[in-house]
Amino acid sequence: MLIPSSIIHSSTIFIPSSAVATKRKVREQEPVNIENKKRAKMEDRLSDLPESLQLHILTSLDAKDAVQTSLLSRTWVSMHTRIPVLEFNSYSFKKLLVFDKFLCDVLRHRDHSAKLERLTFNRSGSCSAKILNSVFDYAFSLGVEQLSVNLQQSRNKTWPVFPVASFESLKSLTLESQSHMICPYLGPISRSFKSLTTMHLQHALIKDPDPFSGFPMLESLTLEDCHLCMESEKTLRIHALRLTDLTILSLWNISCCEVTTPRLKFFDYKGHNFHLLPTHEGLPVLEKVGIDFNGLCYRRQEKLMFDDLMAMFYSMKNVKSLTLCSSIVQLLSFFPDELVRRSSPFRELKELKMDFRNLLWQNLFERICVRSKETFQVPLDVKVTCSTTLRMPNFTFTYPIDLNSITSM
């Protein structure tokens, strides 16, 4: 039936109020639905990632952030329980008690069938033996490959002891503390570390004069502010036939450090004195050495310190690249006649580096060397470079035999 146009133009279409309300409600919910769709789409993107890639992403986070990712996606709710890397850091917590509870919860709910490659534990304050034992026990029970622990202090002053069979998978061990702690992993028990290649000890109390000979695969060793705790023994023996990299940052209660490391290539030393370094075969493959001094030397001790330094030089006669910090150059400059009189201890030296970046702390060096224009002895074919943050005057380096000079700006 045809409807007259007059009726169409003059009539008003009635829409029920309920329909208007429904339409308004749909329009109001539209942004929410769009946001939900975007969130679902994003969730699908996270879920669609390969599990290996998801785990790789989580390994770059510490444990607290890794746990919080469980809110991102349904598939990530339990993903943090399978990551191969755990990093606990108390500095991301306001209270240590909350941190300790978080640590215990994570270890308790983690998937014990998942492989654990690396565990890092950093804690401020005084750490109880219970918390420390739980970390070591969990790491060794799962065959951890890399273990790094950094404490401010421990209440029982010793690192935990476990059955020797627990250490077989460990490849890297870092034990750092701001207070001295007994290290029970040295000496005869070290033979149980069949895979250990890297060790870093800070403020360790060493109770064995030959603590490292039992590590069959040890290649890199760092000793930082370690203390030899033996009344009648002042010689520390570093016997490691596979060792290629050695770093010593202050040793205490030690007069001599006997080195038997025929494969040693890199040696960095920084200490308050220069220990005697008797070596076997003179470190035949030694390539790079860096020497620095961070102690306090009175004027009456300068000659003894100089003689000890020269003795250390002669034990490194095969080194090819030598780096001397400003404090070492300062000490050498006190005895220019001795340098001229003595023959060069370095037979294979090809490069000498002078590091003056800490020169602002060496006012005595400026007074002696810059104003008095002292000389330092190096061979003719040695390349000399200087590293400094200051504008330096010319320095002249001479070799005691030919007395030819090399000028470095």
Order of helices and strands: HHHHEHEHEEEEEEEEEEEHEHHEHEEEE
End-to-end separation in angstroms reads 107 Å
Number of strands: 19
Overall shape: it is elongated
Q: Helix proportion of residues, in percent?
A: 25-40%
If helices are DSSP runs of H or I spanning 4 or more residues, what is the number of helices? 10
Mean pLDDT: 79
Radius of gyration: 33 Å
Percent of residues in beta strands = 25-35%
Report the uncertain regions.
5-16, 361-380, 388-409
User: Structural class of the secondary structure composition?
Assistant: alpha/beta
The major sheet is characterized as: 14 strands, parallel
Task: Give the SSE map.
Layout: H1 5-10, H2 17-48, H3 51-58, H4 63-68, E1 85-89, H5 96-109, E2 118-127, H6 129-141, E3 146-154, E4 172-177, E5 181-182, E6 198-202, E7 204-206, E8 220-228, E9 235-239, E10 245-252, E11 256-260, E12 266-271, E13 288-293, H7 302-314, E14 321-325, H8 326-333, H9 336-341, E15 351-355, H10 363-372, E16 376-377, E17 383-387, E18 395-398, E19 405-408
Parallel strand pairs: 1-2, 2-3, 3-4, 4-6, 5-7, 6-8, 7-8, 8-10, 9-11, 10-12, 12-13, 13-14, 14-15, 15-17, 16-18
Antiparallel strand pairs: 18-19
Helix pairs in contact: 8-10
Protein name: F-box domain-containing protein
Pfam family, one: F-box
Domain F-box: 43-96
